[in-house]
Structures are given as C-alpha cells and as structure tokens.
Amino acid sequence: MLRECRRILKPGGTVVGVSIHTPQSLTPAQEERAVELGPSLVCGCESPEELISQAGFSRPQVTDVTFRFRHTCLAWLTAMKELESQLRTELGDEDFEDELDQKESMLTGIDEGLLLRSLIIGERL
Known about the structure:
Elements: H1 2-8, E1 14-21, H2 28-37, H3 48-54, E2 58-64, H4 66-82, H5 84-91, H6 93-111, E3 116-123
Antiparallel strand pairs: 1-3, 2-3
Helix pairs in contact: 2-6, 4-6, 5-6
C-alpha cells in the first residue's frame, strides 16, 4: 500500500498513516499472544521505519502514539458499555460482542507491552 501511495503522490507530497504493530524482538510466546490480542497480520511485518523506507519515502518519521491510543481504546470501551443497549439493537448481539472483545483485547495487548501504535510520515521526493 505504501508503494502505491508513493506512486500516486506528486513530488513533495507527504503520506501520513498509523500502524498497529509489535515491538521488536518479542519471544515466540509473546508473538503468539500479540497475534491473539491484536489485529490480523500484526506480527511478521517489518518495523514501521523499515516499511516507510522500503516504500521509497524520504525523511521517514515514526512517532510512538501508543499512550494516546490506549486512551482512545479505553474511551471506546467506556462508550460501548454506556451505550450497550442501543448498540446491541443497532449491531446485533454477536457484532456487539465481537467489537467489545476486540477493543478489550487491544487494550490488554497494549497493557502487556505487546501492541504498539505509531504515526508514520514520509515524503516523496
């Protein structure tokens, strides 16, 4: 996706995105746990720095925003619990439970130090 972004950007253009990823050098057991708690394909990828550089962007900037993202996850969970009856009506019980489980797992992964969120910026020369 980053290579395609670079292809369609004009010279001087900037790409900005976020990534959920794992810290470097997890043990195999930690990687397994991160896969269980995080989004699909969270393990096995290069670091955000490597991804943006390999896509051909210059001046790559990667900023860890995990702490802020944790607050967002917590806010989602709080709101979901406060609005549970309405959300169950709109989403259905199964989708509500899946969404709630996903947010709780993400928060657990962050708290266990297995999941990170980074802001990624790169410039096309």
